[in-house]
Amino acid sequence: MWWWILTILFFLIGVGSTALVYFSLKRINQYEGLIIEIQNIIEFATTKMKQVDAKGHYESDDETGFFFQQLKELQELLNGIFENKNEENSGVEEAEKE
After folding, report:
1. 3-class secondary-structure state, position 1
2. Which residues make Cβ contacts (< 8 Å) with residue 75, sequence separation at least 6?
3. Which phi-psi region, left, alpha or beta, contains residue 83 (left: φ > 0; alpha: ψ -120 to 50)?
4. Cα 32 from Cα 25, distance rounded (Å)
5. Mean pLDDT, residues 42-54
6. DSSP codes joined into one string, 28-47
7. What are the tens digits of pLDDT across the range 2-46?
8. Could you tell me the pTM of the whole model?
9. How far is CA 49 from CA 3, 43, 60, in A?
């Protein structure tokens, strides 16, 4: 009789754990999508700013150059958050060649 109680208990723990993992992954995917959107916006802003400042006058200026530098650093930070799938695949292919 006690093994039925353990079976029910393990079943409930399993269902609860599965639901917890599902909702956690769903939330993580939402945050990942948000970060990717922010990264795309910053990349677009950087591109547009470089088009406006084609000769580099604003970027070399002390006051506006600070903004250019901060935007560049933010873009590099966001680029480092996610792994590039092409780099992962090339590493696997190189290992297989050896």
Report:
1. coil
2. 39, 42, 43, 46
3. beta
4. 10
5. 80
6. HHHHHHHHHHHHHHHHHHHH
7. 788 999 999 999 999 999 999 999 999 999 899 888 888 888 887
8. 0.58
9. 68, 10, 13
Distance CA 98, CA 95 (A): 5
| Residue 65 pLDDT greater than 80, yes or no | no
84: confidence class by pLDDT, cuts 50, 70, 90: low
Structure tokens at 71: 């935007």
* Separation between Cα atoms, residue 85 and residue 69, nearest integer Å: 27
26, amino acid identity: K
The amino acid occupying position 75 is Q
The sign of the dihedral angle between the CA atoms of 25, 27, 33, 39 is negative
Length of the chain, in residues: 98
